[in-house]
Design brief:
mainly alpha, 71 residues
Length: 71
């Protein structure tokens, strides 16, 4: 998979769906990426809530890469 920031999708439902498709928890994903579980929660929180943070493309690409490699 080659990075392409034109495909950046910050939608929390999309990011959550990627993780769920891999069958891994937020904590497991955070550990695999070397970030805090809280950051995963921020990226997956619904937009417009206090807990939401826009995910950078690098996060999306990392998650897609992990999923593509079998989680």
């Amino acid at each position: 998979m080659k990075p392409d920031s034109a495909s950046h999708n910050q939608d929390p439902a999309y990011l959550r769906g990627l993780r769920e498709a891999a069958g891994i928890s937020q904590a497991a994903l955070a550990a695999r990426l070397g970030i805090s579980r809280r950051m995963v929660q921020y990226y997956e929180a619904e937009e417009g809530t206090d807990g939401h943070r826009a995910a950078p493309y690098l996060y999306q690409y990392a998650v897609e890469s992990l999923i593509g490699s079998g989680g």
